[in-house]
Design goal:
little secondary structure, 3-stranded mixed sheet, Pectate Lyase C-like, disordered N terminus
């Protein structure tokens, strides 16, 4: 695709009222209601305008000026933003799944917690008009996507195409870049602390001076990347050969734990897997009965534990980043100091475990890291989250009766106002 890069002064300036009318018509179009019309917002000056909370999925905003626009929680899935200027735009929690951002400028933009799954940031071919002859004389000029000094904290960029993009000194803290293509990208001095790059391609990527502290680098080949001065302390590589061998033994213990639950204690025993790397087990634990299992300090990053029964389990200090715990039973579980960044806890039971008449154990998540965790409709009745970090977590619809949040960091937490 090629777009004409006319100067900003040549773009028609839309008023907020005009924009609102066009968006309303687009929303009617998406809903199949009368009077609907797909939004064609190409080559316009929309700088500083308000888009927040609106639905612009499949709209065309190519080559438009969106400098400083407010697009908080705006839905722009599959949106055409080819060659657009989004400098310093506020795209916090916006949805840009499979959006076309080729040749776009995101310098200084705020994309905190935005969903950019499979978005395309690659180079775009821009048509430049002759200064005197105008559109009668065009020359082609490649434009590299720019995201220098942009904020992607907690964002999802899984499978995104960032080939050749410039993201110098950008903040990717705790974001997910699983399977992303970063070939030839410039991430010099970028902050990737705690980011999940599992399976990402970083060949010929410039990561000089980048902070990869605590980053997940499983399946990542950095042999051709520029890594001079990069910080790798605490980063998580692929499971070792020893971990793969140990996982076979761990699985037998897990099966014994399941049998112990199934037979009321007549067979098997609670598994003790403290410090183990359980990632090689993948989805094996999904739906199993693992009451009273001990996995203190264990590594379960990215595993699927949906529906797993973990009542009274000891997971203190465990690495549970990105773990799927949907509808899991964690009543009475010990999760003090656990890292549950971006964990999926939707519909999970994380409350009180009854032990008998007058006896019960609450789930304890003291000092746990739950940044950007998805805990919609979770039951946290009487759970103890004292000193926990819930910045950016989604608690919409969660049950928070008698939940303790003493000294808890609730900055930018979603859903607390209706809890």
């Amino acid at each position: 695709m090629t777009l004409t890069n006319t100067p900003m002064t040549g773009r028609r300036r839309l008023t907020q009222a005009e924009l609102d009318m066009m968006i309303a018509a687009h929303e009617r179009f998406l809903e199949g209601r009368p009077g609907g019309k797909r939004a064609a917002l190409r080559f316009l000056n929309l700088a500083g305008l308000e888009f927040s909370g609106r639905n612009l999925a499949d709209a065309d905003l190519s080559a438009s000026i969106l400098d400083g626009a407010r697009m908080i929680r705006t839905r722009m899935d599959r949106c055409n933003l080819f060659g657009s200027d989004l400098r310093k735009a506020n795209l916090t929690q916006a949805s840009l799944v499979r959006a076309d951002l080729r040749g776009a400028c995101l310098r200084g933009a705020n994309l905190t917690q935005a969903d950019l799954t499979q978005a395309d940031f690659r180079e775009g071919q821009i048509a430049i008009p002759h200064p005197q002859k105008g559109l009668n004389s065009l020359r082609q000029e490649p434009r590299i996507g720019s995201a220098d000094e942009a904020i992607f904290t907690g964002a999802t960029l899984d499978g995104s195409k960032l080939h050749g993009v410039s993201a110098f000194a950008s903040d990717f803290t705790d974001c997910s870049l699983k399977g992303a293509t970063l070939t030839g990208a410039n991430l010099k001095d970028a902050n990737l602390a705690g980011a999940d790059l599992a399976g990402a391609s970083v060949s010929n990527c410039n990561l000089e001076g980048a902070d990869l502290s605590g980053a997940v680098l499983s399946g990542v080949d950095t042999s051709t990347a520029k890594m001079s001065g990069a910080k790798l302390g605490g980063s998580l590589a692929s499971p070792t050969r020893e971990a793969l061998t140990a996982a076979v033994v761990a699985l037998e213990k897990i099966k014994a734990n399941h049998a112990w639950c199934e037979t009321g204690g007549k067979e098997g025993a609670p598994a003790k897997l403290d410090g183990a790397d359980l990632r090689p087990l993948g989805e094996t634990l999904k739906g199993m009965r693992l009451t009273a299992m001990s996995a203190r300090g264990a590594c379960l990053v990215g595993m699927n534990l949906a529906g797993t029964q973990l009542q009274g389990a000891n997971l203190e200090g465990a690495d549970l980043r990105g773990v799927n715990l949907q509808r899991a039973d964690l009543r009475g579980a010990k999760l003090t100091g656990a890292n549950m960044t971006k964990a999926d806890l939707r519909g999970a039971a994380i409350g009180v475990l009854p032990l008998g008449p007058g006896r019960e154990n609450p789930a304890t998540l003291n000092q746990a890291r739950l940044r950007y965790a998805h805990a919609q409709a979770a039951d946290l009745t009487s759970a103890v989250l004292d000193g926990a970090d819930l910045r950016g977590a989604n608690l919409t619809g969660a049950t928070l009766v008698s939940t303790s949040f003493r000294d808890t960091d609730l900055g930018q937490t979603i859903g607390m106002e209706t809890a």
